[in-house]
Recover the amino acids of this structure.
């Protein structure tokens, strides 16, 4: 997850040469997969807003005898299968993943971006389902009810019924 600055992402290297990377910053308003072979940008285009937190989920399918199939989602919906991520910005491309190092890159100036979480998972559901803002309400549930999964809002009461969002989640009711 990144916020602020121009670039934030995960890069792969082979003997010091950049290979594919997942992140933002190759164009002013989009996220994508960059590196040799050109940029592949997420569709629909996702504006980069300084100060916002974004979850990037990348998947690498290693293929025998050729380039790997690489997919990246921007803020995928937790609890939704990877093939059912309707409307979620996504990009799929092929890239050579012959790498011998992995680097986290943040910003082109000191303090321009920060990385807050890095997770390695063996399946899409695990990577997409975490509680991004650590407010004890799953991101998929927050999106379902129009809450912001990147904002700690467990104590808010948008419908004014005296129950917090967290209490509504725990009670199985609509916040």
């Amino acid at each position: 997850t990144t916020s602020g600055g121009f670039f934030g992402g995960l890069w792969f290297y082979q003997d010091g040469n950049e290979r594919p990377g997942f992140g933002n910053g190759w164009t002013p308003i989009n996220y994508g997969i960059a590196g040799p072979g050109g940029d592949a940008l997420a569709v629909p285009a996702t504006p980069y807003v300084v100060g916002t937190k974004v979850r990037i989920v990348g998947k690498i399918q290693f293929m025998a005898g050729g380039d790997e199939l690489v997919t990246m989602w921007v803020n995928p919906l937790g609890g939704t299968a990877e093939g059912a991520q309707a409307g979620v910005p996504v990009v799929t491309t092929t890239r050579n993943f012959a790498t011998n190092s992995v680097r986290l890159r943040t910003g082109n100036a000191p303090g321009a971006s920060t990385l807050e979480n890095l997770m390695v998972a063996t399946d899409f559901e695990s990577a997409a389902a975490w509680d991004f803002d650590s407010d004890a309400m799953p991101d998929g549930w927050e999106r379902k009810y129009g809450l912001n999964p990147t904002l700690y809002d467990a104590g808010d009461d948008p419908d004014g019924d005296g129950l917090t969002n967290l209490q509504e989640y725990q009670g199985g009711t609509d916040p």
Observations:
- Confidence is low (pLDDT under 50) at residues 1-5.
- The chain is about 10% helix and 30% strand.
- Helices lie at 124-128, 139-144, 165-171.
- Residues 165-171 form the longest helix (7 residues).
